From TrEMBL, chain A:
Gene3D superfamilies: P-loop containing nucleotide triphosphate hydrolases. Its EC number is 3.6.3.17. GO terms for cellular component: plasma membrane. GO terms for molecular function: ATP binding; ATP hydrolysis activity. It is an enzyme of class 3 (hydrolase). It comes from Palleronia abyssalis. It is found in: Cell membrane. This is Ribose import ATP-binding protein RbsA. Residues 3-238, 256-498 form the ABC transporter domain. It is a peripheral membrane protein. SUPFAM superfamilies: P-loop containing nucleoside triphosphate hydrolases (SSF52540). PANTHER family: CARBOHYDRATE TRANSPORT ATP-BINDING PROTEIN MG119-RELATED (PTHR43790), GALACTOFURANOSE TRANSPORTER ATP-BINDING PROTEIN YTFR (PTHR43790:SF9). InterPro entries: AAA+_ATPase (IPR003593), ABC_carbohydrate_import_ATPase (IPR050107), ABC_transporter-like_ATP-bd (IPR003439), ABC_transporter-like_CS (IPR017871), P-loop_NTPase (IPR027417). The keyword Metal-binding does not apply. The lineage of its organism: Bacteria, Pseudomonadati, Pseudomonadota, Alphaproteobacteria, Rhodobacterales. The gene is rbsA_1.
TrEMBL record, chain B:
It holds the Pfam family BPD_transp_2. InterPro entries: ABC_transp_permease. The gene is ytfT. It is found in: Cell membrane. It is a multi-pass membrane protein. GO terms for molecular function: transmembrane transporter activity. The chain crosses the membrane at residues 12-30, 50-66, 154-182, 203-231, 243-263, 270-291, 297-317. Keywords: Cell membrane, Membrane, Transmembrane, Transmembrane helix. This is Inner membrane ABC transporter permease protein YtfT.
Length: 508, 339
């Protein structure tokens, strides 16, 4: 066994990030490490590469216990890592990057010719025909990835960890990268492959280990595993469990309600394939899919955060503009983004100011909302949404996550939009606030507002959505409605392995 | 009203303490004479000489509130002064000269704003471009000479007297009051603060961050143009090399003394102009107290450092931390040895 981890635990204040995890890596295999957000993948990798110190457990490399205290120590021991964001220096040449820290010297100065020769030797065997004297930044991300791999292999040479290496590569580049990975595997390296593209896992990996909530769920041989079982492992739901969540308030006829908006051909290359979506008055649409499937990106296209390439949107009265957030708001859209801290709250402003911000921006700067009206709005929503704050003048940054989320919701409710997009509205908030936000969603749709909810909690979608659109690999692939909305059906839809529609589309 | 008074209280106290300190060295500091229809005395002098920095600080406050910085204001002073002097020496009247100078300031602000908001260059770099190249532009306008002009209505803007007080005092006070009112009586203040704290969240809430950013840099350019007009009118000539030289740093300092964070967000125009007056009081005070001139800058730096330290909310924290770590130090070492 090349690398073996036994009973590894790591906790952070308030959370147990890794709980008694075992992991084994053989020489000459590609081993996938899978799990949803917060499963503990990155913590495990950081413990391996010395970025974190583990609390307990042991790591053995070729039988010898190790405990790297820094990434450079891990590198010397033989564990190299390549991240999604290439961590090399784009403004240095390829040769300088490859030899960084161990430049060949002559008379105390860097010997440029020897340096280039050394770099060329490091790159031989990678099937790369590039000029090592040029800046690294001049090459594509895929080539930068391979250069990073070459450097990691040359420095370490036993274990190679690839953390989301394909996230920003196109299909041809992925193939190029995989050829390199296969070569290295055949040379006897142990490769840990972290990705949320399951197709790629099935293509290149020999074994896989699934983590969930900081625990190891299983290690399986990829060839013996089908997608459905794998996704069940990752999401951790027994299929039978689903039935009890069948929500009584679901309206199977939501689609027979009057039509509110019709999106046609909204999409963008490399973000989400063009999709159509019809939104009806007073309905809740759920968007389900694994991490990276294009859920958030779909919402961003609809709200104009990213511009759609082509496509059009109409309502009963004609075209609807949503090319940028301000246009979308003009058209009666609202969007509570996934990352509350960076995109939602304005931390130093008060609760009152955060609530009125969108409304004020909409009215324009020349028509300030009178202070008495501001206070009335703030008090109204603080009471209505049960926002726990000592008073409306407290900075929103001082509130708990759930209450911050309620303030962001209040900001949009004050606008009275007709179509509200909520991206992970309950992430990171406590159970009480969670139930309350779901109740609020129902209340809003009662008044005719249509709501689009993105969530990785299928239970939540089942509880709240009239129908659920399923995404896979940046495509809208299916839709479930009425009594078909069960977590069983959602998981099946996500796992459905039809022939790659991309090739079909190309052939048609 | 009570809130805004509490906001500027530290600056008011600092200013009062400084004035007391200067009076200690130079007892006539607070005396004001009235002769020939004009008030005169060191305090009046501070109010007048502080005009350029106070004006620059007004615009700089808005820029810094958006998490930006404008290094080019000193240069914009030189450009607008050169434009005004050129217009006067070409035979234009005072009115057109002022309009042209203000227009030049607005164009400079527009340039900075576009670089920051549209091209996306970091503010410190974007405004550095105009800071360095602008002096060249000003020299091209004056053709490398110091353009002088005769006393007239334009010169009155720099050295005239209105209701017993120097005209520049009215210009900076009215500008500060006007800008503060514009910010707080409309929603501009809130929107500027919100893009300074979190541009991405503000844009998603529908705030037009791009237009606001450009507007803020244009406001800074406008204030710099007014400062340039005063400086030029005062000496009746445009000196492309020295007008407004290094004043951008005094303006930034004034904003910082005024307690607006360089990280953007909450701002107070009133506190910033008080900051400008604090700086001018130090400058004038050192001269009046009769220190040899070579000590001036060192004393100024020391006083500024002291003011910033006293105003820092972190000071209390640092003090606790220091005491805490000193006390913990002896028993910390054995624990370190164990691990």
């Amino acid at each position: 066994m090349l690398l073996s981890i036994r009973n590894l635990s790591k906790s952070f204040p308030g959370t147990l990030a890794l709980d008694d995890v075992d992991f084994e890596l053989r020489a000459g295999e590609v081993h996938a490490l899978l799990g949803e957000n917060g499963a503990g993948k990155s913590t495990l990798i950081k413990c391996l590469t010395g970025a974190y110190r583990r609390d307990s457990g042991e790591i053995r490399l070729e039988g010898n216990p190790i405990s790297p205290a820094s990434t450079s120590e891990a590198q010397e021991l033989g564990i190299g890592t390549v991240y999604q964001e290439v961590n090399l220096l784009p403004n240095l040449t390829v040769a300088q990057n490859l030899t960084f820290g161990r430049e060949p010297r002559r008379f105390g100065l860097v010997d440029g010719r020897a340096q280039r020769k050394m770099a060329q030797e490091m790159l031989s065997g990678y099937n790369l025909d590039i000029d090592v004297g040029r800046d690294l930044g001049a090459y594509s991300v895929a080539i930068q990835q391979i250069v990073a791999i070459a450097r990691a292999v040359a420095l370490s040479g036993k274990v190679l960890i690839l953390d989301e290496p394909t996230a920003s590569l196109d299909a041809a580049e992925v193939r190029m990268l995989f050829d390199v990975v296969r070569d290295l595997r055949d040379q006897g390296l142990g490769i840990v492959f972290v990705s949320h593209f399951l197709d790629q896992v099935f293509e290149i990996c020999d074994r896989l280990t699934v983590l969930r909530n900081g625990r190891k769920i299983t290690t399986e041989v990829v060839a013996d595993l089908d997608r459905l079982t794998l996704i069940e492992h990752m999401l951790g739901r027994e299929l039978e469990e689903a039935t009890e969540h069948e929500a009584a308030q679901k309206d199977p006829h939501s689609r027979s309600r009057p039509e509110l908006l019709r999106f046609e051909g909204i999409g963008r290359d490399g973000v989400v394939e063009p999709f159509d979506m019809t939104v009806h008055k007073g309905e809740v649409i759920g968007l389900a899919g694994l991490l990276g499937s294009g859920r958030t990106e779909s919402a961003e296209l609809m709200f104009g955060v990213r511009a759609s390439q082509g496509g059009r949107t109409r309502d009963a009265d004609g075209p609807v503009a949503h090319g940028n957030p301000r246009e979308a708001i003009q058209s009666g859209f609202g969007f509570a983004p996934e990352d509350r801290k960076t995109d939602g709250i304005v931390a130093d402003l008060s609760v009152r100011e955060n609530i009125i911000l969108a409304l004020q921006a909409h009215r324009g700067w020349t028509r300030p909302i009178p202070r008495s009206e501001q206070n009335r709005l703030a008090d109204e929503y603080i009471a209505k949404l049960d926002i726990r704050t000592s008073d409306a003048e407290k900075a929103i940054g001082d509130l708990s996550g759930g209450n911050q989320q309620k303030v962001v919701l209040a900001r949009w409710l004050a606008m009275n939009p007709r179509f509200l997009i909520l991206d992970e509205p309950t992430r990171g908030i406590d159970v009480g606030a969670h139930a309350e936000i779901l109740r609020l969603i129902h209340e809003m749709t009662g008044q005719g507002m249509a709501v689009l909810v993105i969530s990785s909690e299928f239970d939540e979608l089942i509880a709240v959505a009239d129908r659920v659109i399923v995404l896979r690999d940046r495509r809208h692939t299916g839709e479930l409605s009425g009594s078909d909305v069960t977590s069983d059906a959602i998981v099946r839809e996500i796992a459905r392995d039809d022939a790659d529609p991309r090739t079909q589309r190309g052939a048609a | 009203m009570k809130r805004s008074f509490r906001r500027v209280l530290p600056q008011l106290l600092t200013l009062a303490a400084l004035m007391a300190l200067v009076t200690l060295f130079f007892p006539q500091f607070l005396s004001i004479d009235y002769a020939g229809g004009r008030l005169s005395g060191p305090v009046i002098d501070v109010l007048k000489r502080g005009a350029p920095v106070a004006l620059l600080a007004v615009g700089m406050t808005l820029v810094i509130a958006t998490r930006g910085i404008d290094l080019s204001v000193g240069t914009i002073m030189a450009i607008s002064g050169a434009v005004a002097a050129w217009a006067l020496s070409s035979g234009w009247g005072a009115g057109p000269a002022v309009i042209l100078a203000v227009g030049a300031g607005l164009v400079c602000g527009l340039w900075n704003g576009c670089l920051v908001a549209i091209v996306g260059i970091q503010p410190i770099v974007a405004t550095l471009i105009l800071m360095t190249s602008g002096r060249g532009i000003a020299q091209l306008i004056t053709e490398g000479r110091i353009l002088t002009f005769d006393a007239g209505p334009f010169a009155w803007l720099g050295s005239g007297i209105l209701l017993g007080l120097p005209v520049p005092v009215f210009i900076w006070v009215l500008t500060a009051v006007g800008v503060a009112a514009l910010m707080r009586r409309t929603a501009l203040g809130l929107l500027v603060e919100s893009i300074g704290i979190n541009r991405s969240a503000s844009a998603l809430a529908g705030v037009n961050a791009t237009v606001l950013l450009i507007a803020v840099y244009m406001a800074s350019g406008l204030c710099a143009a007014l400062a340039g007009i005063i400086a030029t009118a005062d000496i009746r000539g445009a000196d492309a090399n020295n007008a407004g030289l290094w004043l951008e740093l005094d303006a930034i300092l004034a904003v910082v003394i005024g307690g607006t964070s360089l990280l953007g967000g909450r701002f107070s125009v009133a506190a910033s102009v008080l900051g400008a007056m604090i700086i001018q009081t130090i400058d004038t005070g050192i001269l009046l107290a009769g220190f040899p001139s070579e000590y001036n800058l060192v004393i100024k730096a020391g006083l500024v450092l002291m003011i910033l330290l006293i105003q820092s909310p972190n000071l209390v924290g640092h003090w606790h931390f220091l005491r805490h770590s000193l006390r913990r130090d002896p028993d910390a070492s054995p624990r370190g040895a164990k691990s």
